[in-house]
Amino acid sequence: MLSSTRLDGIALVVGGASGIGQQAVYSLAEAGAEVIVLADLNEEGAIATAEESKQYASNKNYRTATFKVDVTDAEQVHGMVDFVVREFGRLDYCVNSAGVDNGIHAPVADTDIDNFNKVQDVNSKGLMLCVRAEAAAMRKQEPRTFRGRSGERDIGRGAIVNMASANSFAGLPGKMSYTVSKHAALALTKMAGMDHASEGIRCNAVCPTWVQTPLLDIEFQKNPQSYAEMSAVVPIKRAAKCEEVSDAIAFLCSPAASYINGTSLVIDCAVTTTIRLH
Ligand SMILES: NC(=O)c1ccc[n+]([C@@H]2O[C@H](COP(=O)([O-])OP(=O)(O)OC[C@H]3O[C@@H](n4cnc5c(N)ncnc54)[C@H](O)[C@@H]3O)[C@@H](O)[C@H]2O)c1
């Protein structure tokens, strides 16, 4: 492992109870985070994940805490960030992975407004509330430095990584509500990276296509057509493993990424680079 990809600070993983967020907890633990706070609506899942993460942790002082949060509620989100800073003194890395899918696929003309509102509420407004509270806490703390081969450099006050999607760049038929929310997630990432760069806060996004979460496995079993669609489009004919996304998240949090800000890493095996003819 490059020394610049090692972590040693305090992490908050929002949506850490399952899926990509859960794997982000494991990747951050493996990379050396000292503390991980797992925040989620699903408190039981967060507690189980926190326990499980101990087997991957490489920091001898590793510890975890959980916090029940609904990211659509500004007060709860503020309370979550407050909790981390109060209990652990600072907030070095934030991973924002709470999100919901589109639900029933429908063309734009048949959009269900309640569903549209729910998806935006969690994926765009909820994400914005998280980034807002996290950046507000980070800007108050002292910046840190890292000693690399070329000497010491400023690595800023903190790093935020948002879960966006390949749908931040392209659409899938029937997934307008989700696609709109993920375009918003990328816009928010650019704005936060831009607005807070001079304060030493980095904000980036990861943008995967299909990721093999337990939910996706169920979807593939229930609907073989959706598996066929994925393998028709993905050149290597498989979904990404969760850790192929979460290890990239850990990298974006690390000193190795100290000059990467306001941008996104597309993790899609080249799906979005071209129109596939076969
Ligand atoms: N799985 C994929 O193929 C894929 C691809 C691209 C992007 N993403 C994005 O990655 C993120 C994680 O997705 P996942 O597949 O791991 O899903 P998941 O359902 O396994 O995890 C999402 C987590 O967010 C939590 N959550 C949902 N609403 C919440 C709320 N209001 N407040 C707090 N927590 C809430 C859930 O309890 C859950 O633990 C999402 O933003 C999703 O859009 C997923």
From TrEMBL:
It holds the Pfam family adh_short_C2. Belongs to the short-chain dehydrogenases/reductases (SDR) family. It comes from Talaromyces pinophilus (Penicillium pinophilum). SUPFAM superfamilies: NAD(P)-binding Rossmann-fold domains (SSF51735). The keyword NADP applies. Keywords: NADP, Oxidoreductase. InterPro entries: NAD(P)-bd_dom_sf (IPR036291), Sc_DH/Rdtase_CS (IPR020904), SDR_fam (IPR002347). Gene3D superfamilies: NAD(P)-binding Rossmann-like Domain. The keyword Oxidoreductase applies. One of its GO terms (molecular function) is oxidoreductase activity. PROSITE patterns: ADH_SHORT. This is Short chain dehydrogenase/reductase.
